[in-house]
Design goal:
Elements: H1 2-10, H2 18-29, H3 34-40, H4 45-53, H5 72-83, H6 88-95, H7 99-108, H8 111-114, H9 117-127, H10 135-138, H11 140-151, H12 156-166, H13 177-184
Helix pairs in contact: 3-4, 5-6, 5-9, 6-7, 12-13
Length: about 180
């Protein structure tokens, strides 16, 4: 039985807390080697190398949700309101939020009957991660047209306006000038 546990444990992926990752980046920056960091964190040097490699050895910025996004506490209030069979408008008033915000939150996370605050919060965190695929990378034809027009010295505003005028019924061929700027940066 012990051999089986050791064999299974050997293949389990080591998960690091945010503090452990921060320690690894700070130690690396201060000149510590992979082996030294690994021994402190009770891990393997290759694992430390992987953590550092994924971001080029540069510590990523701490993620911070905007104030306009729902918090875990607000999601827990939504769950409590749903359990008490309160209406969406009543829950929204209690949280000082728009009813549409509460409604979308509930629908996006399994509906009134199965809504779970922690699951909803974890999902929101996953969905907010960047980078996301750019519209121009997803739509090759649109990307080709935009590149062609940019090479012809058209501005992003001109390209957007031209697309709206020449392809009004095709939503997949519409792009805002802002998307151009984000893509080019």
């Amino acid at each position: 039985m012990l051999k089986q546990w050791i064999a299974e444990d050997r293949w389990m992926k080591r998960m690091f807390t945010a503090q452990e990752k921060e320690f690894a980046f700070d130690s690396w920056k201060n000149g510590a080697g992979f082996s030294e960091i690994a021994s402190i964190l009770e891990s393997k040097p290759g694992t430390i190398f992987t953590i550092l490699r994924d971001t080029g050895g540069i510590k990523p910025r701490k993620r911070k949700r905007p104030a306009s996004h729902l918090t875990l506490e607000e999601r827990e209030e939504i769950r409590a309101g749903l359990s008490a069979k309160q209406s969406i408008r009543t829950i929204a008033r209690a949280l000082n939020r728009a009813p549409s915000t509460i409604s979308r939150e509930i629908q996006r996370n399994r509906g009134r009957r199965y809504y779970r605050a922690v699951d909803a919060n974890n999902r929101a965190g996953r969905m907010a991660k960047r980078p996301k695929a750019c519209l121009l990378e997803q739509n090759a034809e649109l990307g080709r047209i935009v590149i062609e027009k940019l090479k012809s010295k058209w501005s992003p505003e001109q390209i957007s306006g031209w697309l709206k005028k020449t392809m009004p019924g095709c939503q997949s061929m519409q792009i805002s000038a802002e998307t151009h700027c984000q893509w080019r940066c």
